[in-house]
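Quick one, tokens below. Sequence please?
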């Protein structure tokens, strides 16, 4: 199922509904013009949401195909595929070039001589107990151990979470134990057998580059795609949105490695940045304390009616409609010649600049959830007063959904900009980032103060904001 086929509607607003942030990207009901996503949507991504049974069939098909191609047992085919990240072509190439090296688990090592007592009895090297030959079993390496010791070995390993990497008990033997060998010894150990099969399945999925577990809580869905890209996947069952490549929260346009570095840095520097997380600031004109209770960064002082920017406290009019200067960080051109302490201060100032904006948009998303609730209450009042129907007011919900979608993207532009090298490409990015931010704030301002059915003006603003977002992603989404 392709991502574009997600048809969950955000337009059914019953009393029990809540604002689902996993549906930011499910905007099939918005009034922004839809065209072929394969041609214009930089986030378009084909994938399928599969159950565990469907994934098992998919894996078994690969095993059967390789087994028939190389004329080897399914057990060996499964071990080889797992060891080569389920790349059949690579296994076939290595197998044909050097079969003995490919089948590492089947490499024959000489059996331990001290394990043999007579032709019918062996002494187990682990428990040092003489037993009849029928009580022993071994891997192709030839190292014999009694079945009770094998069972104990498997139980210990499985209880530690180890499954596909269980190896022979002999010292320095690298032969891996195949799944069929483990299951044969655990026939009467139902609980440990089920735990083993669960761990094995997880290992197979994690080693397969085309499969990802849905990160949603207790969700059994597994996403499959032949495109290994940092694109958005949305679970059809729990609606969790995540990056297919790394499995984390979707983070376009920032790539997987950069967002990991950014999140680690934010965690490490959280104490330093605590002071910027306050919800109140002083009006730059009358200096009265103002609390931010909405997502929009266009603030109007309730005391003196001064319009200013929440981020930089500058006059809102000075931001202009073409360029949004407070989103750009001004590098000190002479910083290389400054002292070590000055460079450290400059580095902290730069980090705080981007972190404050990153954190601000994260908070704005949460505040806009409250705005949506207020919007729903206001529309209920209007409908009850006979001022239109629910259908007449649906475009306001579509605009709120699009606003969240755009602001989510904007939030992830800041770690992207933080790690960018200075130059023309960064200047272009900051220009497009500034345009997107300006249109988002315009849209947020209009939504929060929507009192009439001025649908045309709001839908025009929605179209502009989405085009700014799409343009930025087309130019800078590296997948």
């Amino acid at each position: 199922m392709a991502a574009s086929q997600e048809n969950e509607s955000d337009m059914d607003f019953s009393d029990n509904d809540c604002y689902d942030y996993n549906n930011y990207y499910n905007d099939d009901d918005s009034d922004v013009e839809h065209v072929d996503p394969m041609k214009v949507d930089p986030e378009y991504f084909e994938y399928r949401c599969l159950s565990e049974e469907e994934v098992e069939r998919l894996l078994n098909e690969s095993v059967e195909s390789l087994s028939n191609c190389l004329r080897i047992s399914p057990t060996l085919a499964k071990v080889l595929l797992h060891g080569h990240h389920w790349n059949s072509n690579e296994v076939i190439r290595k197998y044909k070039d050097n079969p003995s090296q490919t089948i590492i688990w089947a490499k024959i090592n000489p059996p331990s001589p001290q394990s043999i007592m007579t032709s019918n009895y062996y002494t187990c090297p682990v428990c040092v107990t003489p037993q009849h030959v029928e009580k022993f079993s071994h891997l192709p390496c030839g190292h014999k151990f009694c079945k009770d010791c094998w069972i104990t070995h498997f139980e210990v390993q499985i209880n530690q979470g180890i499954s596909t990497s269980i190896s022979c008990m002999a010292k320095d033997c690298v032969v891996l134990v195949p799944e069929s060998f483990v299951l044969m010894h655990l026939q009467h150990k139902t609980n440990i057998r089920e735990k083993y099969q669960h761990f094995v399945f997880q290992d197979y999925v994690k080693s397969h580059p085309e499969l990802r577990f849905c990160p949603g809580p207790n969700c059994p869905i597994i996403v499959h795609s032949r495109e290994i890209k940092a694109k958005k996947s949305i679970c059809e069952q729990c609606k969790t949105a995540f990056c297919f490549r790394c499995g984390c929260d979707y983070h376009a346009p920032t790539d997987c490695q950069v967002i990991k570095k950014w999140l680690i840095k934010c965690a490490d520097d959280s104490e330093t940045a605590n002071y910027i997380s306050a919800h109140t600031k002083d009006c730059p004109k009358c200096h009265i304390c103002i609390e931010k209770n909405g997502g929009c960064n266009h603030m109007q002082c309730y005391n003196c009616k001064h319009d200013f920017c929440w981020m930089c406290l500058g006059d809102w009019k000075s931001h202009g409609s073409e360029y949004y200067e407070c989103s750009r960080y001004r590098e000190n051109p002479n910083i290389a010649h400054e002292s070590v302490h000055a460079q450290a201060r400059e580095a902290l100032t730069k980090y705080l600049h981007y972190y404050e904006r990153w954190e601000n948009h994260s908070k704005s998303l949460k505040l806009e959830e409250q705005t949506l609730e207020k919007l729903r209450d206001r529309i209920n009042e209007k409908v009850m007063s006979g001022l239109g129907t629910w259908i007449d007011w649906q475009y306001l919900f579509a605009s709120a959904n699009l606003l969240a979608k755009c602001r989510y993207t904007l939030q992830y532009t800041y770690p992207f900009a933080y790690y960018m090298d200075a130059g023309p490409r960064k200047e272009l990015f900051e220009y497009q980032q500034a345009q997107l931010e300006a249109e988002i704030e315009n849209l947020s301002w209009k939504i929060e103060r929507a009192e009439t059915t001025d649908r045309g003006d709001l839908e025009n603003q929605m179209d502009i904001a989405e085009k700014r977002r799409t343009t930025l992603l087309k130019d800078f989404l590296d997948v």
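Residues 1-32, 104-118, 274-278 have pLDDT under 50 and may be disordered. The longest strand covers residues 48-50.
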